[in-house]
Structure formats: C-alpha cells, structure tokens
Design goal:
Blueprint: H1 3-15, H2 21-29, H3 37-49, H4 51-61, H5 71-86, H6 91-104, H7 111-132, H8 136-140, H9 144-153, H10 158-165, E1 172-175, H11 182-191, E2 196-198, E3 205-208, E4 225-227, H12 235-238, E5 246-250, H13 256-264, E6 270-275, H14 278-291, E7 296-299, E8 313-319, H15 334-337, H16 343-358, E9 361-371, H17 380-389, E10 393-396, E11 404-405, E12 410-412, E13 422-429
Parallel strand pairs: 5-6, 5-8, 6-7, 8-9
Antiparallel strand pairs: 1-3, 1-4, 2-3, 9-13, 10-13, 11-12, 12-13
InterPro entries: MeTrfase_RsmB-F_NOP2_cat, MeTrfase_RsmB-F_NOP2_dom, NusB-like_sf, NusB_RsmB_TIM44, RCMT, rRNA_ssu_MeTfrase_B, RsmB-like_ferredoxin, SAM-dependent_MTases_sf
Domain SAM-dependent MTase RsmB/NOP-type: 161-430
Main location: cytoplasm
Length: 432
Amino acid sequence: MNIRAIAARALGPVIGRKESLNTALPRALQQCQESDRALLQQICYGTMRFLPRLSCLANQLLKKPFKPQDQDLYALVLLGFYQLLEMRVPAHAAISETVEAASQLNKEWAKGLLNALLRNLQREHDSLFEQLNEHPEFRYNHPQWMIAKLQHNWPENWQAILEQNSQQPPMTLRVNQQKSSRDNYLQQLDDAGIAASAIPYSSVGIQLETPVDVNILPGFAYGFASVQDEAAQLSGVLLDLQPGQRVLDACAAPGGKLCHILEHQPDLGHVTAVELEHNRANRIEENLSRLNLAAEVIIADAATNTWWDGVEYDRILVDAPCSAVGVIRRNPDIKHLRQNEDIKPLAELQLAILANCWQMLKPGGRLVYATCSVFPQENERVIERFTKTQTDAHHLPIEADWGIERPFGRQLFPRSQGHDGFYYAVLLKGQN
C-alpha cells in the first residue's frame, strides 16, 4: 500500500484527538514493508511535530474544513505539506504519491483538491509565510494556550523552550554499570563504528552522534545499555540508595528509572513497582527481563493504598503522571492532544499520589518527586502545596550543576542536542 495512505490512516485519529501517535503508529508499521518503516515514521512524526504550522497553512488554503469522516484526507493534506516544506523528497514525487494515496483511501473524488492544495502551497509559499508569520501558532509552531502559559511562567526562557520543542531529540543511552563502565562501552561503540560521547550530568550516560537501531548497539539484547534521556537518568543519584533498603517506584512504566535504580544499587532489600495500566506494566516486565533484573510489579493505582502491605519504604520515587510538555520533542502529538484544561486535574492527581505515597515512607526516609513537565503548576507548586499541609515533609534543596534552582526543586528545560525538559524535588520525612 502507498506509504502516504498508511500514514494518513494512522494520523487521522490522532488529529481527531481519538488516539495518540504511540497507539496509532505501531499498527501502521505492521502494514508496510520493513524497508519503508523509516519513511513512514518520519512522515508521521514530522507531520505531528509541525502540526500547528501546517494547520495554519491548510486553514489559509482550504475554502472549507473537511468533514469529520474525512480526517484521513485532512491528514493527507498536512503530510503532503510536510513533505514539501521539510523533507528532501522531490516535490513532484511528494505531490504525485500524496495525490495517489487518495485512491487507496477510496476517496478518488479528492485527488483534484489535493493536487491543487499542494501546488498552491508551492506557488504561494513566500506570500503565505509572510501573511501567517504574525500569527503566534504559525510563528512558534505551538497551540496558542501553550505559548501563553510558557510565556507567563518563563518570561526569559519561553522562546528557547518553544524552539527546542520543534527539534528532533538526540538518542541517549544509559550504560548498565553492573555489566560495563561508560568508558568501556564508549570503546565498544567506537569499535562498532558508532560515534558517541559522554554526557555531562549523568555518570553512566552516552549520547550518540546519530540515532541508530537499538539492535546494532553492542550487547543491547544482553542488557549492556538502555535508551534513556539524560534528565531521566538523574533520579538514581537523587534517591541516595543504600544496600538493604526497601524502595517503591510509583507510576513505574515503562520501567527505565526502575531499572536504573536496580543497576545503581544491586544490593537493595526489596523493590516494588506500581503501574496503573496493564499494557504499560508489560513494558516494565520486558525491560526487567532484558536487563536480567527483578522487582515486584503491581498493577494498581498509586493514588490508593489498597495494594500496600503496610511495610514502610526507605526510598520512594514518584514519577508522576503529567502533561509531558517537557518531552514534546519525543512525543510531538502532545502539542495537539494536550489541552489547557488538563493541567489543573493533573496537578490534583499529582498531589493525591504524593500524599498517598507519603504515608508509606519511613520516618527519616527520602522521596523524589519527578515529572517530564516544564509547567510550575505540576512541579514546584505541587511541592509547595504539599509541604504546607504535611508538617513532617521537609524540602531538601538539590545542589547540582544541571537545571535551574527553584524555591522548591530544580527545573530542566529541553536543551539543543541535550536533555529533555524535566523537574525534580527531594523531600525528607521528619522523625516521629
């Protein structure tokens, strides 16, 4: 089947806010030849990465919007625009393949419309960009609400955050220190002809010069390394893990931080991982299996205590559900799927999970709160609210050379060829 038609069928439900790209894309990949999968991924991720800008162009050129049942055609228009503007596909090939895809969607009637729209973009490119550049959504390639919120929260950083969100992220690895050192693994990569370098803030982190298929990484199948952003690798050190401790990883899927905990301190007493969704819990088990690690995995709600055996933990990681706006580079559909009204309920959920897990922490214990968000409403304000109501919760400032210090915790912004946007705070529980 035509790759553009497969992409349009995958993107239609995402654009219609019925699915995420992580849900839609795997099905689409199964429908095409292995040799075409990289192109399909590039088209799907690229179209979602530039969706606000592409939508502005489509709205300018379309006389009337597509009907709900024709979201696949709208997706075809947008991915056609993306090819013309951002890909190296020859224009004639991009146009002909995109127009032909309408036939495979059983919408032969739309071929003339698609051809006209794509050729109008070619012809009127300069004037369209000049007209639309005054519109924030086009200029900054983000929804208006997100631009305004970032501008309000981070008046000195918002433009840099928006710019980074439209870039492709680097591929970063975490070396399993139980099987290799970072220096040794860098040598293995060099021997395999894979250019890479050490990263500044994680002692076990490596960044590849160019992303590669994980299957060609030395020893990947045997757990020598895992793919994990540098910011996410910081939790292991912040937990200050010691032998014999009981550790809880709440909201643990897909298991990257959990596995890092087990690699970082192999002599822990007991480790529990809690995850609400069954499918995501399967990802935890897969990661544990590949790395030959063991933890108790419980499918349950971290905001309730019905699953808890009553034995307190020495260390707790609350990697809370969040808007994920700090990882838009890796999940570009977040720009489209996330809405302004989502933030307040998320903050309430984060506070509920934090309060529930706090009762499970030993006096003298340490809790690390983390999100992949850059919105203070989900980060420092949650911690501020929590410490005001929980008298035995003491905020411990994080002394580090990464991120920026906040009244509560430290905030990282997405960096060019560096880490994602992330937030950490450390809380100590007072002795009774």
